[in-house]
Specification:
CATH architecture of the largest domain in chain B: 3-Layer(aba) Sandwich
Largest interface: A-B, 38 and 44 residues
Number of domains of chain A: 1
Structural class of chain B: alpha/beta
CATH class of the largest domain in chain B: Alpha Beta
Strand content of chain B: 25-35%
Number of helices of chain A: 9
Strand order of the largest sheet of chain B: 5-6-7-3-8-9
Oligomer: heterodimer
Number of helices of chain B: 11
Largest sheet of chain B: 6 strands, mixed
Order of helices and strands of chain A: HHEHHHEHHHH
CATH superfamily of the largest domain in chain B: P-loop containing nucleotide triphosphate hydrolases
Number of strands of chain A: 2
CATH topology of the largest domain in chain B: Rossmann fold
């Protein structure tokens, strides 16, 4: 006879399932991501070959990383935005979960997914570097400069991960707000007031600058992750009472 | 074992009343059928029990807790909606089962593999590439293998052919006999599922109009068949569901609240009497007011 039993493992099981569900989504995301950075690599190599043919003997390259970052930004916005849609909630809550584990599981899943996407972009960077090395071997006049070192690569990886997590959290939170008509009205009202009252505008701008002002990596990371957590908690509070149709 | 208590439950979607002042208790390990026409409130009722929807008023508890967004309840519950779409719909069947094995604590991987083989379903296929019937079978397998103490199926046999439906009922019964639990299953094919259900709830326009054991429901109404002038006097104080005239004969379906005097009258006048089949009874009970049941 099957009995109802309540234990702490329920939370862990639900969290594991949500994270795994989120990682399974990566297959689809990674497919488009690979196409984008694959095309980017191809364009980058063609550009390189053309510049060699035209006797432009020096180049600085990190095109794949830039394109990878741009593609990742677009993808995390899409994922964050669709997290609060009826369809997404319906497909997520087929399995035993609640809003808390849904938000937390997706957040952890996104950290893993973004890291994996960035690792894929890094692999393409290695391929790009190999092509450049090969060209420089065949052409003695050609030399290239690259400002990527292991240390700044790791810092860049971490900073980009932080930025992407903030963008994801912001998209999720904003779309969660969208469904609360009163909150939308308040936000629109504040923004409208800001147009006429410079004090409000300056206050909002200072708030944004607080997070994006160039400063130490550690401070930026602390603020960034704190902001991401706060946005996810806000998003959770906004969808907590949402029904699954 | 799930103990579901519903008190004066009403669910509104803006101006539409989907569930109207429902009060009942569904306890114990049993298979309960939820029967109703399209748009009668079946899915809303099931989703409210499953904790996907909130009550607009009244109260619903599963094991003394509000099921809405409640992980304690969700962890022991498997809800299979009539139509399931998974994220991005690019999941392979095997991945789906792996996912289910993480979420459901009592997941029976052996049973899932066995059913997959029996229903000739390919684990490597994308769920989205399957036909409607195949998708329904996958969802049925998940419901069976979840072994959840409270399993809720919303129209699980949609898209399944008669053979597959029979196999599903047979597996459900076998599995239930081995692992008794609370199963709620909504359907409009009451005649097919009647050997499965122990109790039946009939819902009409958001109201539970009948909640009975299946054996009581089978005797709920009778068909009386005889000459019109003999049958007609019997119908005067009875709840008549349908009357059909065949030449000089009249066949009337009436509620089975016959008194001993009525039975004597039937015997003396040699009237034919038989229980109304469940599917017909369902049609009589759930027909809209104004929809004429009289066939001449």
């Amino acid at each position: 006879m099957r009995r109802f039993s309540l234990n702490k493992n329920d939370v862990i099981r639900s969290l594991r399932g949500t994270i795994y569900y989120s990682i399974l989504d990566l297959k689809e995301i990674a497919f488009y991501f690979l196409i984008i950075i694959g095309v980017s690599l191809l364009v980058s190599v063609i550009g390189l070959v053309v510049s060699v043919i035209n006797n432009k003997n020096s180049s600085v390259y990190s095109g794949t990383l830039n394109m990878g970052a741009l593609a990742a930004v677009i993808m995390v916005i899409i994922i964050g935005v669709q997290m609060t849609t009826k369809k997404e909630l319906r497909s997520s809550f087929i399995f035993p979960t609640n809003k808390k584990t849904y938000v937390l599981g997706n957040f952890i899943g996104m950290v893993i997914n973004i890291s994996l996407l960035m690792l894929i972009a890094s692999l393409f960077l290695v391929m790009e570097m190999l092509v450049i090395k090969t060209i420089s071997n065949f052409n003695a006049d050609f030399f290239f400069t690259s400002n990527i070192t292991p240390a700044n690569y790791l810092i860049g990886f971490w900073l980009l991960l932080t930025v992407l997590i903030i963008i994801y959290s912001l998209s999720f939170c904003l779309l969660a707000v969208k469904n609360k008509k009163l909150l939308v009205l308040i936000v629109v009202f504040i923004l409208a007031l800001a147009v006429f009252l410079p004090v409000i505008w300056q206050g909002l701008w200072s708030f944004v600058l607080f997070f994006v002002r160039p400063e130490s990596v550690l401070l930026f990371s602390l603020k960034g992750w704190l902001l991401a957590f706060v946005l996810n908690i806000l998003g959770y509070m906004l969808i907590k009472q949402r029904e699954v149709f | 074992m799930a103990d579901i208590k519903i008190k004066d439950l009403t669910k509104k979607f803006r101006q539409t009343i989907a569930l109207n002042h429902i009060s009942l208790s569904l306890g114990g390990n049993k298979i309960i059928g939820l029967i109703g026409r399209n748009g009668s409130g079946k899915t809303t009722f099931l989703k409210t029990i499953a904790g996907h929807l909130k009550a607009s008023s009244g109260e619903i508890t599963v094991n003394d807790q509000n099921p809405f967004d409640n992980l304690s309840i969700q962890s022991d519950l498997c809800f299979i909606p009539d139509e399931v779409n998974y994220h991005w719909s690019e999941l392979k069947v095997n991945e789906l089962f792996k996912l289910a094995s993480i979420f459901y604590k009592n997941w029976d991987a052996e049973l899932a593999a066995e059913l997959l083989k029996e229903f000739k379903l390919e684990g490597k296929k994308n769920y989205d590439d399957l036909s409607r019937g195949m998708k329904s079978m996958i969802n049925v397998v998940i419901g069976l293998a979840s072994q959840a103490p409270l399993t809720i199926y919303d129209e699980p046999t949609l898209g399944l052919d008669a053979v597959m439906r029979k196999r599903f009922y047979s597996h459900l019964l076998d599995d239930y006999n081995q692992h008794p639990r609370n199963i709620i299953i909504s359907s409009h094919l009451i005649n097919e599922a009647e050997n499965l259900m122990e109790e039946v709830l009939i819902i009409k326009q958001g109201e539970i109009i009948l909640y009975k054991k299946i054996e009581d429901l089978r005797q709920y109404a009778v068909n009386l068949n005889g000459r019109e002038e003999v049958v007609q006097p019997l119908l005067e104080k009875k709840e008549v569901y349908e009357q059909r005239r065949l030449g000089r004969s009249l066949i009337a379906a009436v509620k089975n609240d016959l008194t001993s005097a009525d039975r004597d009258y039937i015997r003396e006048n040699d009237l034919d009497i038989s229980y109304v089949p469940l599917q017909e009874l369902f049609i009589y009970l759930t027909g809209q007011e104004g929809e004429e049941n009289e066939k001449v």
